[in-house]
Design a protein that fits this description.
mainly alpha; rod-shaped; about 170 residues
């Protein structure tokens, strides 16, 4: 008879301890999870800030080039703008971009590649007796594609003073 009473007392004691510590443990677990989430959000914000610091100047140059195309440019002016944008793009530290997984970089890289290719094609066409830039080249559609790449780079927080996606 003593064994069953001791077992009941032990079970009651265990239930009492759990009832007392269970909510405390749950609160501690929630607190740890909230702190871990806050730390992850802070790390992501820092990563995005590093990306923006590294890419913003080059992005601004590409965005300016894109804006100039909306009003029209000559081939020689376009070549100068592309060259200026390429100089700034070449100054991006690829180690920083890679270490921080800066997604906007790939979009910017695609845009500058399009601008370089269209500049070369336009220049070559000018010196080709049988080429008409207005009918033989697809500069406008290529520039729209480059602009779309820049829009996607902006969706990553570039180009906005508040860092929020466009």
């Amino acid at each position: 008879m003593l064994v069953p009473i001791a077992a009941v007392v032990l079970v009651a004691l265990a239930v009492g301890i759990w009832a007392y510590t269970g909510p405390i443990a749950d609160a501690r677990a929630r607190d740890r999870a909230e702190r871990a989430e806050a730390a992850a959000e802070a790390a992501e914000a820092t990563r995005l800030e590093v990306c923006e610091d590294e890419l913003q100047e080059s992005y601004d140059s590409l965005s300016e080039l894109d804006s100039r195309l909306d009003v029209g440019v000559t081939q020689s002016d376009f070549g100068g703008f592309v060259g200026d944008a390429q100089v700034l793009f070449d100054q991006i530290d690829s180690d920083v971009v890679e270490a921080n997984s800066c997604a906007a970089y790939e979009e910017m890289e695609a845009a500058i590649a399009i601008y370089i290719a269209t500049n070369s094609a336009w220049n070559d066409c000018i010196f080709d007796d049988y080429c008409d830039p207005d009918t033989d080249l697809s500069l406008g559609s290529d520039w729209v594609t480059a602009s779309e790449h820049l829009d996607r780079a902006a969706d990553g927080g570039l180009g906005r003073a508040d860092g929020e996606p466009a």
